[in-house]
Amino acid sequence: MQVGSIGMGIMGSGMTRNLLAAGHTASIWNRTRSKAEAIEGASVMNTPREVGEAASVVMICVSDTADVEAVVFGPDGLIEGLSAGSLIVDCSTISPGATRSFAARASARDVAWVDAPVSGGSEGAANGTLSIMVGGSDDNVARAMPIFGAMGSSITHVGDVGAGQTTKIVNQILVVVNQLAVSEALLMAEAAGVDLKKALAAVEGGAAGSWMLSNRGPQMIERDWRPGFTIDLQQKDLRLVLEAADELGVPLPGTALVFQMYRALQQQDLGSEGNHALVKALEKMSGFTVGAD
To answer: Which of 53, 99, 167, 185 is the most buried (most CB within 10 A)?
Structure first.
């Protein structure tokens, strides 16, 4: 399939490489051109509009709601290049309400929209094992399935346009509250003098086990803060979560606490570190350091 891909960040680059590995032909664009040029086998376009002119199915993976609007509807935007009957597959994590609005604007140009945010970190993007939460009509989701099959191992059609983004909000609540639990648990083990690697091995196979524990716990023990997902991007997602919760009148005290802890870390210029660096906020409070020699 001839596909387009916009956004070559930590997630988008891995996803695009998997599209190419699956035999798709890709026309790509990224705001920083050098990141697009690093994708071997793809054709680098000068503008999002040129991507739309080259492909009738285009995947987007950019940082925030405003970025999606800019690449689709801005000057030389994707929508200007797409022909009638084309399909936009947005894998970014953005506002559910804005998603529905963007889909309506695209529909006025006879362009369909599927929202398909992803989870699984940089590892999942690189390995093609992402969890993909899909919103859209049955027909449009079916058209996008060859793309999803190249990028993910768990693909769930959860409802109409916007439902994928709402489900990603649910996902992010679970991610950050789980990361808080992992941080507290490892800090407790450190304070008690328990061998952290043995403690992790002892608990991860039982009821306490989780993706965050198994994948980020070892990094925390080694004090490896390389990001699968940065604090800054996690904060963007939590802003979306809390905005949606406010609109619905849903109390999310645990999520709000994590948001404030990440904010404190951002004030310490740690926003580019992995979201598992949440533990540093607890270390600051307690005086204990996870993984300290």
So the answer is: 99
